[in-house]
Amino acid sequence: MKHTALLKQVLTTLILLSLSFDSFSLDKIKVLRPLLKSDKRTQHKDEVIYRALEATTPEFGPFTFETVDVDMTPGRAFSSMKTGELINTYVAPANRLWDQSTIPIKIPIRKGLLSYRLLLINQLDLPKFEKVKTLDDLNHLTAGLQKNWATTKVFNDSNINMTVSHTFEGLFLMLEKQRFNYIPRAIYEVFDELNNRKSQLKNIIVEPNLALHIPMATFVYVSKDYPEIAKRIEAGLKKMVANGELQAILNKYYAEDIDRANLETRRIIEIKNPYFDEENQSIIEDKDLWHGH
Predict the structure, then answer these.
(1) Measured distance CA(42)–CA(217) in Å, rounded
(2) pTM
(3) What is the pLDDT of residues 16-47, one digit of tens each?
(4) Which residue, 63, 67, 198, 285, shows the most beta carbons closer than 10 Å to its own?
């Protein structure tokens, strides 16, 4: 009799454990792995997403994290995210098109660092930039931008003079030949990009006195076919904001660039970003989401 009761208790426990594990479906996260796997931007994005998933394992269960080795333009990534078959999670500068077509997680994973741009210029143009005090002054010069960049849309909306290249490398060669006057790059991009091309670009420098401020955020986007993954990553990112881990990971990858940018000593030129309208104003007002607050 006691043996039968004990057997029933064991079976009941096993069933409950089985139900507990079965209640979690395995979340399969698929992110794009660019050709430059060693790029700290890629490492930063992957670590943030992975830690958000780890932080939510007690509530959401196990997961897999797959990196897809495909050379993909942002446009192709956007198309792929609509189906969610090849990749289902992507990090991109915040914009309305992505907001409408995927699930945006509106927590800036780089805490707004993308908002600050330093200028790559041809050193022969240094005297021209010494005269730049305002946006009107800057607009007497011409920016070089790549098609499909979020910055390109902002410059176009603001009627800022620009030349558009279809290739990234082409921008640097055009600047070397003085086809335009500057390339605006994020403070965590500009130094590495110049250093990696220093042998080919003899005349290109980081302009020493100016910075642009364009309110901009980097969001994680999830395919609409995977709402549970979006819910999970958002929950994880909120935990990381609250416990300071998001800031710590940002410092791990970008502290040196932030120091080198030395924004406190630069003239800051403000450029409006129509994306941050009333609908997204709450993001700007939440100081916990931005670096330096």
Answers:
(1) 16
(2) 0.86
(3) 334 444 455 799 999 998 655 568 999 999 99
(4) 63
What CATH number matches the domain at 27-112+216-257, 1.20.810.10, 3.10.50.40, 3.30.479.30, 3.40.190.10? 3.40.190.10
CA distances from 145 to 32, 48, 122, 152 (A): 23, 28, 15, 6
Residue indicated by tokens 């069933």 = 15
Check for a shared fold between 27-112+216-257 and 115-213: yes
Nearest Cα to 162, choosing from 176, 177, 145, 174?
145
Cα distances (angstroms) measured from residue 34 to each of 39, 131, 223: 9, 39, 19
Q: Which amino acid is at 152?
A: T
- CATH superfamily placement of domain 115-213: Periplasmic binding protein-like II (3.40.190.10)
**Residue from 30, 62, 63 nearest 46 by CA:** 30
**Residues with pLDDT less than 50, the chain:** 1-22, 293
For residue 36, the Cα-to-chain-centroid distance in whole angstroms is 16
